Amino acid sequence: MLRADVVVRRRDFDVAIALDVARGETVAVMGRSGAGKSTLLDALAGLTPLDGGEISLDGRVLDRPPRLRTAPMHRGIVLLGQDARLFPHLTARENVAFGPRAAGVSASDARSRADEWLARVGLPGAGDRRPTRLSGGEQQRVAVARALAAQPRVVLLDEPLVALDAVTASEIRAMLRESLDGVTTIAVTHDAVDAAALADRLLIVERGSVTQEGSVREVLAAPATEVAAKIAGLERVVGVARGGAFEREGLRLSSTDAASRALAAIDGARLAAVFRAADARLGEGSPALVSHLEPTPTGVRVVTDHGAAEVAPGDAAGIRPGDVVLLGIAPDRVRFVAVA
């Protein structure tokens, strides 16, 4: 079990994140760029010293400032990032065998283990190839094999799929899901698909602090902040409960969701209406002021002061910033969540 209370002071804000990760659990960490996610991983890996707090693994304290700090190679933790960082002068087999050899495994056993891992990550027979003869996706597969062949107690993933094309990323995501089964993992990602595919639990980090935590499904379905909503691909509009519905400056929404109706029954309670832009409709509902329009792969996103509606190009024809349109969301397409 990994227990961490990470405190790292930065120029603009402090990173202060506490988390417990059970053995074999995968936790995803999401947030804006610069929120402190990579700082968290670097601290866990021993690359960034703590200014406060403590890190322990299976009861053994790894870091406790100011005196105790365990070197990265002695922590049982491996960090896999966007760059595969393979040793260019070594073959794929030698790269994967490096960890076992460093741990005292015999050369023949290390090579056998390397070949087994290369096969597991979809590269059987590639052991004699050097990194220059591997594609970017193949290099990342070798990096995964090298990380896991060392039999780490914890694997840290820092957006290892971000530089790959969509097809390759999908293949490696599936391979990671299988290869990391039973391995304690913390995965930093910007992609909700990665979180849903790989993780049991999700943490949202904003300016160095955890603002929401729960199962991946719970967090993505009911985002507590604007950042979490954007990650989930949802619109989040803040208003109040009034007469069993949601109200915000002329916008009135109802929901068929039982939990949402219970929240809306408390007059004056602060609520956020959560919905998908594709479920919003123009030409019906309440007046909304258009701020701008954004092209999407399938149409146009009309952004208003009451959230956005994603519509077909023809439905957005003639709409300009500053126009007032009618915007509505069907009751079965909107949920309400409490706002602290």
Automatic annotation (TrEMBL):
Residues 1-232 form the ABC transporter domain. GO terms for molecular function: ATP binding; ATP hydrolysis activity. Keywords: ATP-binding, Nucleotide-binding, Transport. SUPFAM superfamilies: P-loop containing nucleoside triphosphate hydrolases. InterPro entries: AAA+_ATPase (IPR003593), ABC_SmlMolc_Importer (IPR050093), ABC_transporter-like_ATP-bd (IPR003439), ABC_transporter-like_CS (IPR017871), P-loop_NTPase (IPR027417). The keyword ATP-binding applies. It comes from the Bacteria. This is Molybdate transport system ATP-binding protein. It comes from Microbacterium proteolyticum.
